[in-house]
Amino acid sequence: MKCKVCRGHAVVDIRRHNAGFCQTHFIEHIRNQVARTIKEFSMFGPDDRLLVAVSGGKDSLAVWDILLDLGYDVTGFYLDLGIGGYSTRSKEAAVAYAASRDAKLIVRSLAEEHGFTVPELSKLTGRVPCSGCGLNKRYEFNRAALEEGFDILVTGHNLDDEVATLFGNVLHWNVDMLGRQAPVLEEKLLGSGPDSRTVLVRKVKPLVKIAERETAAYALLRGIDYIVEECPMVEGNTQHRYKEAVTLIEESSPGTKHQMYFGFLKRAASRFADDSGAADLVACSECGAPTVAYDDAEPRCSFCKTKALATKRKLEGVPARRGRKRR
Amino acid sequence: MKVKLRNPDRVVDVTGPTTVRGVLQELGIVPEAVLVIRAGTLLTRDEAVSEDDDLEVRPVLSGGARA
């Protein structure tokens, strides 16, 4: 196969584009695609301070690498989830990458910040590990961005991530979730006028046009030493099964993933538009994060409720509970 | 040829000469879900591979929590 740009020897084939690329032109292609995505969705500008959530995996390190190369002011944020040797090795990958690019990296530990790790949280609360992990990450990424004064939170979600989520939301008709699935999740404020404050930082996904196979190829060809092993808690994960299912369809019908996600954005997303405006939200009585009030006199956000339960059970020495198998 | 598979790490034998597509077909692996690597370089699915090659088939689909 030949490179579609220079006719040299191709190292990557992208069947949905019916094209092959040599190393140089593949890296250029990915970088251009990301730059176009940032512009198309008005994600951020050159003066914005970006915080990229980094796991040590291919996607987050790739998006960090691309944004650095495009000249943005971008800092990495790594959250140590306390998942044994996996967390140790993923942190090493993030730290090594930051050192290789002389880039700024903020490291925080869930255990040091809140007194529990993801495996402990799952045992103490009975919450499915991936569910507890997602809750912690969303909360801590946003908290770090607010505390450190960043304008934008960047994540490495790729096309496969978005398609798998969309696939799951359609399978279960999670219409609320469909309304919130977008390449840009706008900032949310609480209060009005001069008293208003940002409670959710603007969140963007510059890799939404890049398939997961392409982010892996990009990382490898750029010499990024990402963590290849899977999180030990992820086995049987629903999101992973959805990815495999859609990838099987993509194999026989190249372009399916792109059509599904971007067709949704163009022709269906507005029908599920997010109407959970700031008017419906109040500040958590413990941490100030946004939450839905219901009729609570002292509303607490999901994170604070989960943390309180875990802390209580830890103090009481409640025996470990088995999490549900489904993730 | 020796083919290294991941998660968990293991090595299997595949008879060559063949193509990358042939190796993946024999192992029952969907090409869209992996990268195939030889000596640190990526291979397209039409690339010829020989009995003497050492390959790595690296999965690209990761699961886990949505952040």
Which helices and strands, and how do they pair?
The complex is a heterodimer of chains A (327) and B (67).
Chain A (H helix, E strand, L loop, with lengths): L11 E3 L4 E3 L1 H18 L8 E5 L4 H12 L3 E8 L3 H18 L3 E5 H5 L3 H8 L3 H19 L4 E3 L4 H13 L3 H5 L4 E2 L2 E3 L6 E4 L1 E3 L7 H10 L16 H15 L3 H12 L13 E3 L6 E3 L9 H15 L11
Parallel strand pairs in A: 3-4, 3-6, 4-5, 6-10
Antiparallel strand pairs in A: 1-2, 7-10, 8-9, 11-12
Helix pairs in contact in A: 1-9, 2-9, 5-6, 5-12, 7-10, 7-11
Chain B lengths: L1 E4 L4 E4 L4 E2 H8 L6 E5 L2 E2 L5 E2 L4 E6 L8
Parallel strand pairs in B: 1-7
Antiparallel strand pairs in B: 1-2, 3-6, 4-5, 4-7
Spatial extent as radius of gyration of chain A: 20 Å
Poorly predicted runs of chain B are none
Largest sheet of chain A: 6 strands, mixed
Oligomer: heterodimer
State the helicity of chain A in percent bands.
40-55%
Tally of separate helices of chain B = 1
User: What does the average pLDDT of chain A come to?
Assistant: 92
Q: What level of helicity do the residues of chain B show?
A: 10-25%
